[in-house]
Design a protein that fits this description.
Elements: H1 7-32, H2 37-40, H3 44-48, H4 51-59, H5 64-75, H6 85-97, E1 102-105, E2 111-115, E3 123-129, E4 143-145, E5 148-150, H7 154-173, E6 181-187, H8 197-202, E7 212-216, E8 223-228, E9 230-239, E10 243-244, H9 254-273, E11 279-287, E12 294-295, E13 298-307, H10 310-334, E14 342-351, E15 354-355, H11 361-372, E16 378-382, H12 387-391, E17 396-399, E18 404-406, E19 414-416, H13 420-435
Parallel strand pairs: 3-6, 3-7, 7-17, 8-16
Antiparallel strand pairs: 1-2, 2-6, 4-5, 5-19, 8-15, 9-13, 9-14, 10-12, 11-13, 18-19
The structure holds zinc ion (ZN).
């Protein structure tokens, strides 16, 4: 394995910078007592300066071409939500290839690879999602142009899987002994209608013990997701008999009920979004109707609401549901003939929100790892696999998968091999700060 010269040298200079930056953080978590006790006892400088850790960090540059091969292999296996099993099989093979032995696939299809620690009983989970937003029929052949690789799903989040595999390989190659276990997870159903089903299952009541979570998703090595943007999504359908626009005039009108709903909802939701934590709402799609001279028999819409604040999300939800009920009643009351129209409100997404604790050891450790690599953390809110642990009060962050991702969720998605080792080093340090190293 080739090692980049000079990396360790640069690293040890940065390490002393970091110690100053971290002293505050560790003190704060010491004072925080309670649930963070074991985390705060990890000595960051001894981890960062550990010979084996420095070897691992220095190795990532030499792994780049091997990682591109992994990326291409995994990307070319389609993996829409609910159809991740083929890609999961390949991930199992890849975990085996990097020296993992305790590998399993759980009931919903998550791939789990446990790397035993030497012993404090804690587990730090490193999670990257297996699924992409693209349907099974999408052409996922990778086209390479120098350092830029094009294919749907290549960045989001196939590169996340590669980052996770690289970390496992580096830990195994340099025989780094961690105190806590590391549970690597290739999760199913992060995207769209997958609705976080993989992590929901992972954090079920009788699921494995997990004390902290580092999700790998998104670009920007300095990007640190600490807050969970929750969302609620509905598909709404008004249905009635329908009829001729002239001959059946007076029937309750599905489109007009839908319009009343949108007006009600816009008026009731707007004030919730005006101050405090960010909250949003959008009627993204509407449809229905057969012709210009017909009263439609159905009218439907899809609605999306988001916030990092669960209370605001709950308030938007209440505004939405009352808007539907009132619109239905008003449209039926206004009819002069025919039966009442009905409405079906179908939840199609429910991701819990939560604001992470910026003083948690995990967040501070991630910031220290970034600083060690010359970056100042940008704390952001996003919707990722970390939503579930954050909403349950389990320390969780989401970090960069490395390189530059462009046009995520679009057919012309690309990933550029631009310094992916920086994000890998940050990921490695963050995880090892969390686990402790023997
Ligand atoms: Zn993603």
């Amino acid at each position: 394995m080739r090692q980049a010269l000079g990396t360790s040298f640069k690293f040890s200079i940065l390490a002393s910078v970091m110690l100053a930056a971290c002293s505050n953080a560790t003190e704060e978590t010491d004072n925080d007592a309670g649930d963070q006790q074991t985390v705060a006892s990890v000595d960051l400088s001894s981890v960062a300066e550990h010979t084996k850790v420095q070897q691992a960090l220095a190795a990532y540059e030499g792994m780049e071409e091997k990682n591109v091969e992994r990326l291409i292999t995994l990307t070319e296996i389609p993996a829409p939500p609910f159809r991740e099993e083929k890609r999961a099989e390949e991930l199992v093979r890849q975990f085996e290839a990097v020296g993992m032995s305790d590998i399993s696939v759980d009931e919903v299809g998550n791939v789990l690879a446990r790397r035993k620690g030497v012993g404090d009983g804690r587990t730090v989970a490193v999670i990257a999602h297996l699924d992409t937003v693209f349907p099974l029929s999408t052409d996922v052949t990778v086209r390479r142009d120098g350092d830029v690789l094009y294919a749907p799903g290549i960045g989001d989040n196939t590169q996340g899987l590669v980052a996770m595999l690289s970390l496992a390989e580096a830990l195994n190659t340099y025989q780094i002994e961690t105190e806590a276990d590391i549970l690597f997870v290739g999760s199913v159903g992060e995207e769209g209608l997958g609705d976080l089903r993989g992590v929901r299952h992972l954090f079920r009541e009788d699921g494995p013990r997990i004390d902290a979570v580092v999700s790998v998703d998104g670009g920007g090595a300095d990007r640190l997701v600490v807050d969970a943007v929750g969302s609620l999504r509905y598909r709404v359908m008004f249905s009635g008999p329908g009829g001729h626009s002239y001959g059946a005039f007076g029937l309750a009108h599905p489109h007009q009920a839908l319009a009343r709903t949108i007006t009600n909802f816009t008026e009731r939701a707007r004030p919730i979004t005006e101050d405090g934590a960010k909250a949003t709402f959008s009627v993204g799609r509407i449809g229905g109707g057969t012709s210009i001279n017909s009263i439609p028999f159905t009218s439907w819409m899809e609605v999306d609401m988001r916030s990092v604040d669960q209370a605001k999300l709950d308030a938007l939800n209440a505004a939405f549901n009352s808007s539907v009920d009132d619109a239905l009643a008003a449209e039926n009351a206004a009819r002069t003939r025919g039966p009442e129209i009905t409405v079906e409100v179908k939840p199609v997404g429910d991701r819990p929100a939560g604001q992470g604790d910026r003083n948690a050891a995990l967040v501070q450790n991630a910031m220290a790892a970034m600083e060690l690599n010359g970056l100042e953390a940008r704390l952001v809110a996003s919707s990722t696999d970390s939503n579930i642990p954050i909403s349950k009060g389990i320390p969780a962050i989401t970090m960069s998968r490395g390189g530059i991702s462009r046009n995520a969720h679009a057919p012309n998605e690309s990933w550029e091999k631009k310094d992916p080792h920086i994000a890998l080093r940050i990921l490695t340090l963050t995880v090892l700060f969390e686990t402790g190293v023997r």
